From TrEMBL:
Protein name: Beta-ketoacyl-[acyl-carrier-protein] synthase family protein
Similarity field: Belongs to the thiolase-like superfamily. Beta-ketoacyl-ACP synthases family.
Organism placement in taxonomy: Bacteria, Bacillati, Actinomycetota, Actinomycetes, Streptosporangiales
Ketosynthase family 3 (KS3) domain mapped to chain residues: 13-433
PROSITE patterns xrefs: KS3_1, KS3_2, PROKAR_LIPOPROTEIN
Keyword annotations: Transferase
GO cellular component: cytosol
Keyword field contains Transferase: yes
Length: 435
């Protein structure tokens, strides 16, 4: 197990090797641009394209102009020719969420070397984090249906299902093991990662692709979130890059985003057989319920998730070197999480950086856990913690080290990443550096 001094170690038998990552956010179309944006404190938030002008939400992490052809010509130029050709064929009529999920999956798959050194297809699994992915697609087809039912998309009966996102990615990569969705609101990503670890520990799979499926944003859903005062609306509409400001005194709600990510997890034995060096290690994770449906965060539930994650990872609180916070930029949510971190880590909480990836990407909703997991892995590997941007006015009641506005070097052996969701769902995963 990695030590509190930041010294790395090997992947433990009870953990999983992380061998590939992929990300597409407003910061860029791959992990390199994602990392560059994070380190340089760049915001990926802009004005929405093509949304109903009547809605209160005007800004977000908009990826609606993503084009697969341009992506394959740029990011995918080193992909195997047959994979790129297959992607063009399978995804040509696929809605945006499915296209983006497949794109991040290809990134992680290729980085893991599974295109050159494959694992048996029946021993590869796919756990997709997300639900209600097709809101925008359904809304557009509903408009067409109102005019003439005969002209809805010919494959609407398939594409409107979340499982189409799972299926098209499995077909693209030839995955034949257990494959399914995990839906737990904004905790979906972490819980999908924890589920994948369970598949590996149980022996049900050797390799598990975990995708955080981007949610293509729909005007109706955005307005619904605005009406319950969840979103930042009005305050920074003219300066989108300043809107997501976790922990800052001027925070006024989260900024939704269409970003997504993917990781490849596998047993240490599988990685050795394939001759692949792990990027980091998944040490453990846990999830809890608040036993209520309200959106109000619950400190006790968050604390239990963090404590149980540490237990599953075989870690003590004083061995945590860094925390990637859920930190959505809501007044109550950020304050509750800070209190939970302080309770769980004790004096250690004041000694380590606690930052928010969402300050730059916005809130990727059900994909956010995987996006932030990738951010955590990158920070461990580079020995740098990215900033929490837009720290302009300190909230005197929040007194941890939020890495304000500028990245810094920081030796890390272990990290926690939190994700909490509507419906009273809490999750935390523990990640370790490897030699």
């Amino acid at each position: 197990m990695p030590s509190r001094t930041g010294q790395p170690s090997a992947v433990p038998q009870t953990g999983a090797a992380i061998t590939g990552c992929g990300a597409i956010t407003g910061l860029g179309p791959d992990t390199a641009s994602f990392w560059s944006g994070l380190v340089n404190g760049r915001s990926g938030i802009r004005h929405w394209l093509g949304k109903d002008s009547r809605i209160d939400s005007k800004i977000g992490g908009d990826l609606s102009d993503f084009q697969l052809s341009g992506y394959l010509a740029d990011v995918g130029q080193d992909y195997p020719e047959d994979l790129a050709h297959k992607a063009k064929k399978l995804l040509r009529a696929t809605p945006l969420s499915g296209v983006l999920t497949a794109a991040v999956a290809m990134q992680a798959w290729v980085e893991a070397g599974l295109h050159e050194s494959p694992a048996p297809a029946a021993r590869c699994a796919h756990v997709c984090a997300g639900h209600n992915l097709g809101h925008a697609y359904i809304s557009e087809n509903l408009k067409t249906f109102d005019e003439d039912p005969e002209y809805i998309e010919p494959l609407f009966g398939v594409h409107h299902l979340d499982t189409d996102v799972v299926g098209v990615t499995c077909e693209l990569l030839g995955i034949r093991g257990p494959s399914f969705m995990v839906g737990a609101a904004c905790a979906s990503g972490n819980i999908a990662i924890i589920t994948a670890l369970g598949l590996i520990r149980s022996g049900a799979a050797d390799v598990v692709l975990v995708t955080g499926a981007p949610v293509a944003q729909d005007s109706l859903v955005l307005q619904g979130l605005a009406m319950i005062d969840a979103l930042c609306t009005g305050t920074f509409d003219d300066e989108p890059e300043r809107a997501s400001r976790p922990f800052d005194a001027l925070r006024a709600g989260f900024v939704p985003s269409e970003g997504g990510a993917a990781v490849v997890l596998e047993s240490a034995a599988s990685a050795r057989r394939r001759g692949v060096a792990p990027l980091a290690a998944l040490l453990g994770g846990a999830c809890t319920s608040n036993a209520h449906r309200l959106t109000k965060p619950d400190q006790n539930g968050q604390e239990r998730a963090m404590r149980e994650a540490l237990t599953t990872a075989g870690m003590a609180p004083d061995e945590v070197d860094y925390v990637n916070a859920h930190a959505t930029s809501t007044p109550l949510g950020d304050a509750t999480e800070v209190a939970a971190i302080k309770s769980v880590l004790g004096a250690r909480a004041a000694e380590i950086p606690v930052n928010s990836t969402k300050s730059m990407t916005g809130h990727c909703l059900s994909a956010s856990g995987v996006v932030e997991f990738v951010a955590t892995v990158l920070q461990l590997r580079h020995g740098i913690v990215h900033p929490t941007i837009n720290q302009e006015k300190q909230d005197e009641s929040l007194d941890l080290d939020f890495v304000p506005n500028e990245a810094r070097e920081h030796r890390m052996g272990t990290a926690l990443s939190n994700s909490f969701g509507f419906g009273g769902m809490n999750s935390c995963v523990a990640v370790g550096a490897v030699s």
